[in-house]
Specification:
Order of helices and strands: EHEHEHEEHEEHHEEHHHEEHEH
Helix content: 25-40%
Largest sheet: 7 strands, mixed
Strand content: 5-15%
Number of strands: 12
Radius of gyration: 19 Å
Shape: globular
Number of helices: 11
Oligomer: single chain
Distance between the termini: 20 Å
């Protein structure tokens, strides 16, 4: 069982190294790391090396809600594909993830060929169709904590108009196939990862359809897979434990986990959890590193 772990990271290299040791320590996994261009010069020299660990040469300037998130994933997929290795599974992970349960390789071996990904079918009449039905200006595809920031106000206004039946800035390349939406993180068979790259090569219209969408990483890959011959192998489970915030400002973003979340994590059936931050609670990171082999 050969696994390629694709890791997107932008900070906390010490923490990232602990996660890399968890997922690379079995000797049967390769780790490909993409570092956000904004921090690459500082972080790259501090990422642990190894024969099965590679920092990819291409570095994207990743922005929340933007196609650059998809671009970073594509860079990782292409690098893994170019390696010539035949991977049984390709898993997309964040540098703020941790392995929180042992036995991942054995579990994937028992479920060889399954697609572990969250994906829910949406449509043109769905309330979330504004994500891809509008050509979102770049300044609206940014994260801002203040509810009074002009970008958030503009985004809210465009969504409100859309729900009233007014598409103020229609997407001229809107996808003409069923759209599926879910969490960005996945663990997919290697042949499905290769299929994604082939599909994009043969269907240049598809990337254009999501280039100016809002948060396209939440449906770009899901839509390709669920419209593919592999769709029947999809399991609506991306193997990841997370909790969303509970306030107006953070209810669309994963909450940073602490030692208070250990019980909930261990009661779940998930192999990964996110997100962790050593500057918020390093004790929970050390706990799972001891439990799961860093």
């Amino acid at each position: 069982m050969k696994i390629a772990h694709l890791v997107q990271t932008h900070k906390n290299p010490v923490q990232v190294n602990k996660f890399i040791r968890q997922i690379a320590g079995d000797g049967h996994s390769d780790v490909y790391v993409h570092i956000d261009k904004k921090n690459a010069g500082n972080i790259a020299p501090r990422i642990a090396g190894g024969r099965n660990i590679k920092i990819i040469g291409e570095s994207m300037d990743v922005k929340w809600g933007d196609i650059s998130l998809v671009d970073a994933t594509l860079c990782l997929l292409r690098d893994a594909n170019k390696s010539g290795m035949k991977y049984d599974f390709v898993c997309l992970r964040s540098g703020q993830d941790l392995l929180v349960r042992n036995g991942l390789r054995e579990y994937l071996a028992r479920n060889n060929g399954k697609i572990f990904m969250n994906a829910k079918k949406t449509g043109s009449g769905d309330e979330t169709a504004y994500f891809w039905s509008l050509k979102w200006p770049s300044f609206t595809r940014e994260r801002h904590d203040s509810v009074f920031h002009p970008a958030r106000i503009s985004r809210a206004a465009l969504i409100r108009l859309y729900r009233l039946g007014i598409n103020a800035i229609p997407n001229p390349n809107k996808p003409a196939i069923d759209v599926y939406r879910g969490s960005a993180w996945f663990c997919i068979p290697g042949e499905v990862a290769a299929y994604i790259l082939d599909y994009l090569e043969n269907n240049p219209w598809y990337y254009k359809a999501f280039r100016d969408a809002l948060a396209p990483d939440e449906y770009f890959f899901q839509t390709i897979i669920m419209n593919s011959p592999y769709a029947s192998g999809s399991v609506c489970n991306n193997l990841t434990y997370l909790r969303f915030g509970e306030t107006f400002l953070d209810n669309n973003h994963p909450r940073t986990l602490t030692v208070k979340d250990i019980s909930g994590i261990e009661k779940s059936d998930k192999f990964f959890a996110r997100k962790f931050d050593e500057t918020v609670d390093n004790n929970v990171i050390e706990y799972f590193c001891r439990r799961c082999g860093a």
